């Protein structure tokens, strides 16, 4: 079969999820013949990851928009705080990105500051951010046919005894003055399902269509649709029920279906982008985190939008568009360029040359060591999402530790409280050794019986493998790969395990899914760095 024929065959359907691993809260946008998906990034840079497609089938990663502290400073950001639910729109020749920086979630408070930045192209340059309101999170812009623009958001209510999800709020945005004007008003208080958030408005068929997320971000999640002849309501909810949900269907591959946004193709077909999760067992832990899927939407004139069965499908018809695959990316990053590749993320600080150096040693990634695992200002962790049930990250690291305060290695990571780390360090007797350390809910476990004497070698191969619920490490001292004789629990690196409720209030949330990473710690602040020769990510 020729490549051209094969591509046409592939393009007849879309396999879900289209973005695997840590890619939640999708905002989908079409500009002419180009489609973009923007997703949440929380405490990770670059903020607001963007993927690009020509056919809704094949997607390529463009990297992220929030690449500088000028756009958002995540120093000190808590686990699963930071950037929530971005919204990407295009109006008057500019891309508009609205994003929420959520600083807290304790005792009914959110401290969600909303920002707006604009750019002439999806790759920038992005303007200095405009501070909007802090009324609630999941802010989004709606550009009406009359040229006006409106900011939507979930309206938070901190008062004891009140519903902290106080409804969907709207307020006019004046692009000439770059500020909100007029008074805000509540236009929708949601259904009995509650936890109404993630608003988007669309103008179609003479109606305003309000799409929201309800039921929370876990198993009870759903996409709710309501419509009104007037922008300010009242909004009538679809009498047939949610547009999409996985509730009551533990047999489905795709769970937690919700938080959707709509797009119309050049030929009039409609699709819904939404988040999903794939637990390893029915309603079990989701190590892959929350991912992005697409569903085809039928929208008859005069009727309501409908997804087949109102449940997420693993495979759906592709749109009537020419197939447009992208060139395959190499699984190995040789670090030959001046900047980190688009697939990498860095924790709580952008990949600036004060700690990421790709010039001093050609074809190497030099990482200057940062804080301990609990440090939230200057950690030195370069990572990528776990994108498959079985996958691995392999590297070669060169590192000369001075003492036990200096660690460089490879990790399966979730957040400051949940991780496994296999690293090169220095023992008290001066030997260079490989050690293993795990953290589960903030409780550390060392494995001194598994310490490996490197025989003075300061250049070693390291590998971490996710094999369903098991995680394994291996090393190569120049004589072939040796597996560390322990099987670790990969499911502690999951949204469900990270989340914690105390006395009915969230003490911790888990929104990111697991990552594989290259981690360097210089806990003594002694100026130590590690060189990584390459990194190979494979899905098995």
Account of the 3D structure:
With 540 residues, the protein is an all-beta fold. The chain is built from two helices and 43 strands. The strands form nine sheets. Strands 4, 26, 29, 31, 32, 33, 34, 35 and 42 form a nine-stranded antiparallel sheet that branches. β22 and β23 form a beta hairpin. The chain starts with a helix and ends with a strand. The N terminus is likely disordered.
List keywords for this structure.
single chain, 540 residues, nine-stranded antiparallel beta sheet, globular
* Number of continuous helical runs: 2
The span between the termini is: 25 Å
**Regions with little confidence, pLDDT below 50 for 5+ residues:** 1-10
Strand percentage, roughly?
over 45%
- Number-wise, the strands total 43
State the helical fraction.
under 10%
Largest sheet report: 9 strands, antiparallel
Mean pLDDT comes to 96
Radius of gyration: 23 Å
Quaternary state reads single chain
Shape: globular
Which structural category fits the helices and strands?
Answer: mainly beta
Domain Beta-xylosidase C-terminal Concanavalin A-like: 332-537
Keywords: Glycosidase, Hydrolase
Pfam families: GH43_C2 (PF17851), Glyco_hydro_43 (PF04616)
Family: Belongs to the glycosyl hydrolase 43 family.
């Amino acid at each position: 079969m020729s490549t051209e024929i094969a591509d046409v065959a592939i393009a007849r359907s879309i396999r879900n999820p289209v973005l695997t691993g840590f890619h939640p809260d999708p905002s989908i946008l079409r500009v002419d013949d180009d489609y973009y998906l923007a997703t949440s990034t929380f405490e990770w840079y670059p903020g607001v990851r963007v993927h690009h497609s020509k056919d809704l089938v094949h997607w390529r990663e463009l990297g992220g928009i929030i690449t500088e502290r000028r756009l958002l400073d995540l120093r000190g950001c808590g686990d699963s705080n930071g950037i929530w639910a971005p919204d990407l729109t295009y109006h008057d020749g500019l891309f508009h990105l609205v994003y929420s920086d959520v600083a807290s979630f304790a005792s009914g408070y959110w401290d969600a500051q909303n920002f707006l930045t604009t750019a002439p192209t999806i790759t920038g340059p992005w303007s200095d951010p405009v501070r909007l309101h802090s009324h609630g999170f999941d802010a989004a812009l709606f550009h009406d046919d009359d040229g006006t623009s409106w900011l939507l958001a979930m309206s938070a209510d901190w008062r004891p005894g009140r519903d902290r999800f106080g409804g969907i709020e709207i307020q006019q945005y004046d692009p000439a003055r770059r500020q909100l004007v007029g008074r805000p008003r509540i236009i929708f208080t949601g259904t009995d399902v509650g936890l109404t958030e993630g608003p988007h408005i669309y103008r179609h068929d003479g109606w305003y269509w309000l799409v929201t997320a309800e039921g929370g971000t876990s198993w009870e999640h759903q996409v709710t649709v309501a419509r009104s002849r007037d922008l300010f309501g009242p909004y009538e909810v679809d009498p047939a029920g949610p547009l999409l949900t996985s509730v009551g269907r533990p047999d489905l591959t795709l769970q937690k279906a919700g938080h959707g946004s709509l797009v119309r193709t050049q030929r009039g077909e409609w699709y819904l982008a939404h988040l999903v999760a794939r637990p390893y067992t029915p309603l079990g832990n989701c190590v892959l985190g929350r991912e992005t899927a697409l569903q085809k939407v039928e929208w008859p004139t005069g009727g309501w939008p409908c997804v087949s069965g109102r449940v997420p499908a693993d495979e759906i018809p592709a749109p009537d568009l020419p197939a447009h695959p992208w060139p395959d990316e190499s699984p190995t990053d040789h670090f030959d360029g001046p900047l980190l590749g688009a697939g990498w993320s860095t924790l709580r600080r952008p990949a600036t040359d004060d700690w990421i150096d790709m010039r001093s040693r050609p074809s190497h990634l030099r990482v200057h060591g940062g804080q301990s695992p609990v440090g939230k200002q200057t950690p030195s962790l370069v990572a990528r999402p776990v994108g498959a049930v079985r996958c691995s990250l392999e590297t070669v690291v060169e590192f000369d530790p001075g003492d036990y305060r200096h660690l460089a290695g490879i990790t399966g990571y979730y957040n400051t409280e949940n991780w496994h780390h296999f690293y090169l360090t220095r023992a008290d007797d001066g030997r260079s050794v490989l050690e293993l350390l795990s953290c589960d809910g903030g409780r550390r476990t060392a494995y001194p019986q598994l310490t490996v004497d490197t025989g003075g070698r300061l250049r070693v191969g390291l590998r971490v493998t996710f094999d369903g619920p098991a995680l394994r490490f291996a090393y190569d001292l120049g004589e072939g790969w040796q597996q560390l004789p322990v099987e670790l629990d990969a499911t502690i690196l999951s949204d469900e395990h990270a989340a914690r409720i105390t006395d009915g209030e969230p003490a911790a949330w888990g929104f990111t899914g697991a990552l594989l990473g290259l981690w360097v710690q210089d806990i003594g602040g002694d100026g130590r760095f590690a060189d990584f020769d390459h990194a190979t990510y494979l899905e098995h």
